[in-house]
Amino acid sequence: MPRLLVVHHTPSPALQAVLEAVREGVAMVDDVEATVRPALSAGAADLLAADGVLLGTPANIGYMSGALKHFFDTVYYPCLDATVGLPFGVYVHGNDDTAGALTSIAKVTGALRWKQVAAPLSLTGASGPADLEAVRELAATVAVSL
Ligand SMILES: Cc1cc2nc3c(=O)[nH]c(=O)nc-3n(C[C@H](O)[C@H](O)[C@H](O)COP(=O)(O)O)c2cc1C
């Protein structure tokens, strides 16, 4: 069964609600197994065992979170050759400006030559029902692509 790895940094209730919507979105797709890992604990073995990845992070000082940056620092060289073409999606949550975080993730996923299979999702402020539905759709879209 295809395996979707969800690598997330979830430091607040708002992001926890987003993560729960991710789980719901993956569950909407038959025959895909989700492995959910906090970015500070995910490693190369998790990534190498996955058929696709969904990245989630808050915007922090105009960049991805240090936790997600740590994940990329950890996996970059061990996975550089083995994960070319890996399907991925990404969500970023911020107070008001996620552009720098999305750019930083685009740079590293581009260097890894991963394949973006869903539009990046930017969430700002309090997440309402429409935002959480967009998260479910993102997760389902990535899961369906596997
Ligand atoms: C150190 C720090 C830096 C942050 N930098 C940004 C930023 O550059 N852009 C932004 O939109 N939000 C920024 N935020 C807000 C976080 O993205 C936000 O707190 C996080 O997504 C969780 O949302 P919540 O506070 O509504 O629970 C920052 C928060 C912290 C603690």
Automatic annotation (TrEMBL):
Ranges where the NADPH-dependent FMN reductase-like domain occurs: 34-111
GO molecular function term, any single one: oxidoreductase activity
Pfam family, one: FMN_red
InterPro entries recorded: Flavoprotein-like_sf, FMN_Rdtase-like_dom
Name of protein: NADPH-dependent FMN reductase
Organism: Trujillonella endophytica
